[in-house]
Amino acid sequence: PRLRDVAEDLGKHKLRExxxxxxxxxxxxxxxxxxxxxxxxxxxxxxxTAKQLLALKHKLGASDLDHQTSNRVLSSLRQIFxxxxxxGHVIAPALPRNFGTPPWKTRERWQIxxxxxxxxxLKAAPDEVRPILGYVANTGLRIGTALATERAxxxxxxxxxxxxxxxxxxxxxxxxxxxxxxxQFLRQALHASSVAPFPYSYWFLLDRWMELRV
Length: 214
What we know:
Layout: H1 3-16, H2 21-39, H3 50-62, H4 67-86, H5 115-124, H6 130-139, H7 143-147, E1 154-155, E2 160-163, E3 174-177, H8 180-192, H9 202-213
Antiparallel strand pairs: 1-2, 2-3
Helix pairs in contact: 1-2, 1-4, 2-3, 2-4, 6-8
């Protein structure tokens, strides 16, 4: 099979296992931006060599991506090949390991913003992502969970959103109460996209967030 087909089958398989839709978006985004262009999306997976995989790792290392992001791409790459091997498509070649990351660089720096600072941030945000940022700020949801929001889960009459277990990291269903601001941002998102309020990937949002926080 083609590399593209194996990556797509992996995502669908993970969905059947109960992984959130965000998992499939992550695999697709990594494949579209990094794996497919470097290895060839239409290439038969059995023709790809360990040397080519290592070249992909070196290219990631030479890019402006931080090591944590590069390691997520490498993780997706390994999952694709291990999935192919488990299904008898190929004997996986030597797969590249993650980049080493010093412990102090893996610690996230948190900054609690005042309401006025959040308002300033949202005002400066691009129109296309302002609703998701405002929705997250007023619900406390994880980005991946918020991005997975579906129209059928929203109950504006009761002012709640019911998230199924498959959309939650802890695999437990969760009900979010909508305050006035959260409801307003959610309605704005649905006005632009009636089927899914946030029809873009984590990486699309991350690119704009990184620009916004500078």
